[in-house]
Amino acid sequence: MSLFTPRRIGQMSPGGSLITYLLLLAWAAFVIFPIYWLVITSFKSISDVNAGPVYLPFIDFQPSLHAWKDLLIEDWDDTRRAYVNSIIIALCSTGLSVLVGSMAAYALVRVTYAPRFSTILLFVLSLGGALAASLAYGVDWRLAGAVAVAIFVLAVRGLGNRFAATLGNGDILFWMISQRILAPVVVVVPIYMMFQSVGLLDTRTAIIVTYAVINLPIVVWLMFDFFNSIPRDLEESAQLDGATMFTVFREVVLPLSKPGLAATTLLVMILAWNEYLLALFLSTADAQTMPILVAAMNAGERGILWWTMSAVIVVMILPVLVLAIVLQRFISKGILVGAVKG
Amino acid sequence: MMEAKRVEIRSMDKHYGAFHAVKDLTLTVEPGEFLVLLGPSGCGKSTALRMIAGLEEITGGALILGGRDVTHVLPKYRDIAMVFQSYALYPHKTVAENIGFPLKIAGASVADQQAAVLDAATQVHLEQLLDRYPRELSGGQRQRVALARAIIRRPALFLMDEPLSNLDAKLRGAMRAELKRMQKDLGVTTIYVTHDQIEAMTLAHRVAIMRDGVLQQLGTPKEVYRDPANIFVAGFMGSPPMNFVTGTALRQAIRVGDHDVPLAGLSVRDGREISVGFRPEDAALCDPAEATLTAEVFIAEMTGDETLVTLVGPHEDHLIVRADPDLQIDDGERVGIRVDPDRRYYFDAETGARLRPDGTG
Q1: Is the pTM of this model over 0.80?
Q2: Cβ A252–B90 below 8 Å, yes or no?
C-alpha cells in the first residue's frame, strides 16, 4: 500500500479535473510548440521570418511554399541523396549493432567467461610488437603477424597456471561500456585516417561501420539488463523439455525480449539518425547525411536559411516519429507477469 | 503406461571452486518410487536435483538413469521433466501452448499435441482454462499448468523442486494429496526436494535427509522418524521437534537438574557429554516425585485435539510435551515429565552421533 494513492481524473471533482486538464494542456503546448514553430516557419516567406514573430498561418501571415520548392524541386538531388543516405545508414548500422550487441549481451548473461589477465596482456603486447615491427622497422606485416601469433601461443602455454588472475563477465561488460565514456571527438582523427588508408572516405560503408561500433556498447548495456531480467528457470525448463540453445533463444528469450529490443532499436536508431560529428569528418558529398545538410543551411553566403532549414528538419523528424509510433506498442511493461511465482 | 526407470546416484560430488556443495552422494531410487530429498536451505538438496536434471555439471561420480550413464549428457537427452519452484511458465504462451511445449519441441503432429494437451489438462482439471495466459491464473492454477507440462511427455523421471512452497497452507495440503495420487497413478519415478518435513513424511516412499551437502539418513518416513541416525535427523523430523536435554555421564546415568536419567543398556565412560532426546508424544506430565525430569510450565497451547505444553527445562531450554486437550495447568507450575523408557534416544553431545544400546559407547 502506498501512502498516497493519486485519484484518477474521472474520480475528481469538476474543479479538480478542470485544473488538471489545464495543467496538462499547458505542458503539452510547451512540449509541442517547438515542433509547431518549425512547421510554420517552413511555410513562412523570407520577409515574415525576418520582420519578427508571426504565429498563426492565414491570420498573422500568408503561407508560402518557397522553402519547400527549394528543398523538393531546386535542390532535390541534394535532399534526396542525404535522405537516402541517412535512412540506409541508420537502418544498417542499427541492425548491425542490435544483432551483434544483443548476441553479446545474451552471452554475457548466460555464459561465464574467465579470460586470464595474463593472456589479455600477452595478446596486447604481441599485437603491439607486431605493429611496431611492421610500421617502425619496415618488417613485412605477414612475417611480423606470424611471429606475434607464435610468440603469443607459446607464451600462453608456457605461462600455464602461473598467473591465474582472471577477469569476469562484469569486467567485460564494463570494458564495453567504457568505450562509450570517451568523447567521440578524441577518436575522430584516427578513425578518419583509418578509413582514408583503406579508401573508404565519403562512403556509406564507413559511416555504417563507425555507427555500428560506437552504438554497440549501448546495445550491450541495455540488452544485458533486459536479458538478465528474464528468469533463468524459463530457459532451464525449456532445455529440460528438449529445446536446443537456439530453440530456447527463439521460443523463449526472443519473444520475451521484444520490449527491450524495440526500445534499444529506437534509441540506437535515433542516435545514428542525429549523429553529426563523425558524419562531418567521414563524408564530403556522396555520403552526406541529413544533419550535415541541415547544418549546411547555416553556412551559405545568404546567411541562415531558417525557412529551408525548418523544412529539412520537418522532413528529418518524420521517420523517427513513425518509428516511435510503430515500436511504442512493444515498449510496454508487464510482459513477464505470470512467468514465475504466484 | 511406460516402464518406470531406476535412478542410481554414485558418489556424486559438486564443487563450486573451493565450496563443496554436494559431498559423495550415493543413493538409488527404485522404479516408480517417490523419493524426497529433505533438508534445511543450503544443505545441497536443490543442487543435487539440478545435477540430476543436468542443469549443473556433475564434478565427480556418476548418474545412471534406467541403466544408461547420463553423467555428462545434456538435459534434453535425459528424458527428465522438472517442476520448478517458480513454475517457470512461459508468459507469452497460453496454457495450452505451455502444456504442449515439450511435444512441440519433439515435433509431434498438431493433432497429437492437441489430444495430449487436453488429456494432461484434464488430469489436473485445467481443461476450461486452455486459452488463458499464465498472468490470468491463480497460484494454484499456475502450479497445475507446470504439473501438466511435466506429465504430458511421460518422462523417465520427474524432478520437483519445492513445487508447493508458493501456495498458501490450505491449497498446499490439497495439492499434496493430488500430487501423491497422480504420482501413484502414473507410476513415474519421482525425486522431490523440500525443506518441509511434513511434505516429506506424507509424500515419500523414502526420505533422504541432507545437511551441509552430506546425506544423513535414507529410509522410509517411519524409519527416519522412529529410528533417526543422528541428532540432526532426530531434531529435524517431527513437528513439534524432538526435545533434547544434555548432561554429563556419571555411573551409567546422566545428571540433568535434580534427576539422574539412567543410560539404559549403554556403556558410556564417565564425564562424556550425552544428549537425551524424546518426542513430545512419548512423554507425559506427572507428579514431580515419580518423574524422569522436572520442569516449569512456560505456556500451554490448546490446538483442538491436544494441548502442547511448553516447559522450561533444567538448562533453561524449552521442552514440549503433548497432553490431553482438557488439561488444566498454570503457567509457572512445577511439574514432572515422565519419558517412555523405550522411546528415549541417546546422542553424543559433541558429534551428534546416535548411541545405541548394543553399540559401543
Answers
A1: no
A2: yes
